[in-house]
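Recall from the previous chapter that SMILES is a line notation for molecules. Here it describes adenosine-5'-triphosphate.
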Amino acid sequence: MVCSEEIVMRAENLTFSYDGLKNIIEDLELNIRREKITVLMGANGCGKSTLFQLMTKNLIPDQGRILLGEMDIEDMRRKEFAKQTAIVHQNNTVPADLTVNRLVGYGRTPYFHSFQAAGTREDEDIINWAMEVTDLRSIKNQRVSQLSGGQRQRVFIAMALAQKTKILFLDEPTTYLDIRYQIEIMKLVQRLNKEYGITVIMVLHDINQAMEYGDIFVGMKHGTIVAEGPPEEVIDCEILHELYGIRLPVVEVGGRKFVLPVESVTSMELPEE
Ligand SMILES: Nc1ncnc2c1ncn2[C@@H]1O[C@H](COP(=O)(O)OP(=O)(O)OP(=O)(O)O)[C@@H](O)[C@H]1O
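With both inputs in hand, we obtain:
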């Protein structure tokens, strides 16, 4: 089966191990829906980052394939692939003297020709657009190493935006951020999706944020997908137990579901609606 109007990317029978002994990804099937926000969740070490590395051509599967449109990504040149998908990794380090403007500009690399000494006017416009969308214009000349965690995350998202791709992978974009910056980043992601039609696939560890911002929830366990669908439908006490091995109360507030991330509250203790 190839991708369709609705499915922009697809992993088929994907299997991968780092050492040839233990499969980290095991016969995994996944469809990424066009112009939706897909949230990938699962316990530490279940293989989320490895799956992202496979889906962004940084690792090669042992078995199976990944389709982008009708193409197997293994058959695509890296530059062509980078014009269609971008990834913001979990841990990003930068040289001490690199400015916001320069780093965001690196996003244009797939579009450079070998004979080209500098970016074109179009490159410059796109870099400015990426900084505008992420609200970085006022700090464009500052060093990335001197920014706060929230600002720094926006810079890496801006660099990915400068790649001008229709698909964006975000590996734990809110890690280390306080709640205000977490929400700021989530709203930015939502805006990229709604206003610019970017298909987003992101790893989150916050179940409530997954429900708030995700169109599709994907639950992963031991390198395979065990739950998939709209978060409101899929997330319940049982699936959380399956994914994380603990029982957490799922409550309703104002007709919407929330998960209390504490084990000590039992559903018996919760006030009636
Ligand atoms: N480069 C590597 N070489 C060998 N093993 C690795 C490598 N990277 C990851 N692993 C192993 O693969 C498994 C899955 O790791 P991965 O980082 O994909 O999980 P994850 O679900 O993203 O975890 P987390 O939520 O902690 O980020 C883990 O057992 C990890 O130790």
